[in-house]
User: Which sequence fits this backbone?
């Protein structure tokens, strides 16, 4: 590896991000076309980044919120013990030490009681309100809802209120081929199926300017999984899904999205370059409203 | 209701608002901790700790940054502190080598990429993702936080500088070093 290769390799990560000046981008491109080793490094680094991108989002455990309530309550008890210790050190005379120690012992024992039996010492006003996973059922912040909440008959579920539904129509253009990647002609095997380490779902083709590019087919299942990933991310729910009988790609989708997450959803679609038409503006609505989205999906290569 | 509205509601004593924030961000914070610590038990414990700290500090929230960058900052610092802790080092050295219940291999938190390929390809992909997580585990904390926030969480440079406090140039060079380091550690797997 010569000094030029060392220099180029330091730039590869920036090159992949398109984060170099045009002259440097061109210099790296030129070097990668000429140097097989650096080109291999470039491909390997791209694979690492691609692997990082494809980590699956894992859901937090189902009892996560309850665990936090427990921690908050425990922290409250520890805080009270600390306060008690502080009082002992500075204010309580020696003859009351035994009394303080007994009180702390009771507090410690109390800490190990089941949560239901120690609910009365929670943060003032901290009702152990459980919220459904879809937080679109949260009550809106109105004068009515700012009143102290009444605990529903032991169920612990936030009160249901009538939700506003806003219908929206979107058209998406789905990519069925991944972005092409320039690879140097020296390491290319032509033909289809392709020999070497390139799978059958990848195709090589030559562009007009003579560069060789690699394309990866994005299958219908992968498209559906990507859509599910985005919907999951913005806490939406799929109501119905229809796949195209001929090619298997999704052709229409109905889903509900919390009003607060709608812009997030649009941003994700926009980042993928999937929005086909201008996005309709939303009317003013309360934060707990639900957007009912009817999407038509078209495939493009 | 947006984050700021929920925080204002919390300031007024409405505790349901905090629960709503937890429900909104629990998966993202849990994932961040999971990638950072590489262990589901540690991730659960640390991410709950993040929300406990947020609960205690939320009354001091000044609306000068977005809630989630504020929360991510707590999460990144909590993960860094956890990595430094003796308990974490003990678990890393003792338990992980025996593929314990909390470790990533063979658990419900196995790392898998989306794949509809044949079973052999899928297995290779799974192995690749496990190898990638192991490589992430060995990165220094600063590099780890940058690569997770940028390449896994997909945050912008601006958001990451806000969360980590790194200058833009430092951030980019750490990202580059982290990626190269991962590539070296993965060797022939890539």
Assistant:
């Amino acid at each position: 590896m010569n000094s030029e290769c060392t220099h180029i390799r330091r730039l590869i990560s920036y090159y992949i991000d398109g984060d170099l000046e045009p002259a440097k981008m061109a210099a790296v491109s030129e070097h990668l076309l000429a140097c097989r080793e650096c080109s291999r490094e470039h491909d390997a680094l791209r694979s690492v980044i691609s692997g990082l991108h494809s980590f699956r989002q894992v859901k937090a455990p189902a009892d996560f919120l309850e665990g936090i309530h427990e921690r908050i309550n425990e922290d409250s008890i520890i805080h009270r013990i600390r306060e008690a210790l502080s009082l002992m050190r500075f204010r309580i005379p020696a003859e009351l030490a035994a009394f303080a120690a007994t009180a702390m012992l009771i507090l410690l024992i109390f800490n190990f009681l089941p949560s239901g039996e120690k609910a009365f010492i929670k943060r003032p006003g901290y009702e152990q309100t459980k919220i459904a996973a879809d937080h679109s059922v949260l009550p809106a912040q109105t004068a009515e809802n700012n009143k102290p909440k009444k605990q529903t008959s032991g169920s612990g579920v936030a009160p249901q209120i009538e939700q506003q539904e806003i219908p929206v129509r979107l058209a998406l253009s789905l990519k069925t081929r991944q972005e092409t990647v320039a690879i140097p002609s020296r390491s290319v095997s032509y033909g289809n199926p392709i020999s070497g380490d390139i799978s059958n779902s990848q195709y090589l083709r030559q562009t007009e300017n003579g560069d060789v590019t690699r394309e990866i087919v994005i299958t219908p299942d992968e498209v559906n999984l990507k859509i599910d990933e985005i919907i999951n991310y913005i806490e939406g729910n799929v109501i119905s899904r229809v796949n195209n009988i001929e090619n298997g790609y999704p052709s229409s989708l109905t889903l509900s999205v919390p009003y607060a997450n709608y812009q997030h959803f649009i941003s994700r679609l926009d980042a993928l370059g999937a929005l086909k038409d201008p996005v309709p503006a939303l009317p003013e609505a309360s934060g707990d409203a639900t957007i009912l989205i009817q999407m038509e999906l078209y495939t493009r290569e | 209701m947006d984050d700021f509205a929920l925080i204002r509601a919390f300031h007024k004593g409405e505790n349901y608002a905090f629960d709503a924030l937890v429900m909104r961000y629990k998966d993202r914070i849990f994932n961040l901790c999971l990638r950072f610590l590489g262990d589901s038990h540690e991730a659960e414990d640390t991410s709950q700790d993040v929300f406990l700290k947020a609960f205690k500090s939320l009354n001091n929230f000044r609306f000068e940054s977005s809630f989630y960058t504020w929360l991510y900052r707590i999460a990144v610092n909590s993960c860094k502190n956890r990595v430094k802790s003796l308990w974490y080092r003990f678990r890393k050295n003792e338990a992980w080598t025996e593929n314990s219940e909390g470790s990533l291999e063979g658990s419900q938190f196995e790392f898998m990429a989306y794949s509809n390929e044949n079973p052999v390809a899928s297995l290779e992909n799974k192995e690749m993702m496990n190898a990638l997580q192991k490589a992430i585990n060995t990165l220094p904390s600063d590099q780890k936080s940058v690569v997770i926030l940028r390449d896994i969480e997909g945050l912008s440079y601006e958001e990451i500088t806000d969360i980590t406090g790194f200058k833009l140039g430092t951030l980019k060079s750490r990202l580059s070093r982290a990626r190269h380091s991962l590539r070296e550690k993965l060797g022939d797997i890539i």
